Amino acid sequence: MNEKLPVLIKIEWIKTRHYRAFKILSLVYVVLLVLVFIGAQRFINNITIQSNDDSFTPFRGLSFYQTKYIWQNFTYIAGYLKIIPALLIILLITNEFSFFTMRQQLISGLSRKDFLTGKLLVISALIVGIVILIALTALVLGLLHQQVGDVSLLNGGLWFLPLHALELLTYLIFSMMIAFIFRRSGIATIVFVLYALIGERIVSFILPGSIGDYLPLNAAGSLIPLPNNTLTSSIGLTFRSTVDIQTILSCVIYCFLFTAIIYFLLRWRDA
Predict the structure, then answer these.
(1) What is the largest CA-CA distance in the chain?
(2) Taking a C-beta distance cutoff of 8 angstroms, is the pair 33, 116 a contact?
(3) Model confidence at 64: pLDDT above 60
(4) Which region among 17-26, 83-92, 245-254 has the lowest average model confidence (pLDDT)?
(5) 237 — alpha (psi -120 to 50), left (phi > 0) or beta?
(6) Is residue 152 a contact partner of residue 67, using CB atoms and an 8 Å limit?
(7) What is the pTM of this model?
(8) Which long-range contacts (CB under 8 A, 24 or more apart) does 21-24 make?
(9) Cβ atoms within 10 A of the Cβ of 161, count?
(10) Residue 184 CA: distances (Å) to CA of 95, 220, 243
(11) What SS3 state is found at 126?
(12) Measured on CA atoms in the order 2, 257, 263, 162, is the torsion positive or negative?
């Protein structure tokens, strides 16, 4: 398999580099993510001004780029946009069936396991790119807005980056599974969006106790807890700053489970 990795990387690169929709959607995601990070402080400032005008409790000095919380803030906000890379994966997978490129790859001598490995490489590259983008943007904006007395940006909170990577991995492998099940981009996209935005919430409401918290997308979304900051502490709210090991384990298990389901589909369904 190690000998085939360069071949698989080259194949996936050839498939994606001329795919216009993929490039456009990727660019939209990058621009939107950076704009959200840049505009977050202005949004907070507007809330602060309104709070100072309308209440007796002034909220001053709120900074989205405060060193203590910057990594959690950035990864938490980025979690709301992870549906875009999930749609990218759905488009890439369903195109394999629409244009019969998967069949051609199998005819050329590569195995179904090789095909799955290639797609996992694409997901891995996408996640690494997103995490690097978040890290670089956080470093630049954090340094530009760093206040006197702030600790170093590298002194804490970096562990939120691998947590966000696991969040993306769970989300993207789930979207890949949906794409392999339905094979058509329109149907797969509709099913995925409906489940992600509505379906899992309904199932969570029906399930007893906290079982719904460990459904795949809920578990992934819980990896980055809501950040504590000056605003929440000033009104007496405190959110957890750690992640339950059960949530991490459930996401890891889901990744293996979804991958196994995809491999089963590849083995037992025609290309």
Answers:
(1) 72
(2) no
(3) yes
(4) 17-26
(5) beta
(6) yes
(7) 0.90
(8) 21/91, 22/88, 22/91, 22/92
(9) 16
(10) 8, 25, 36
(11) helix
(12) negative
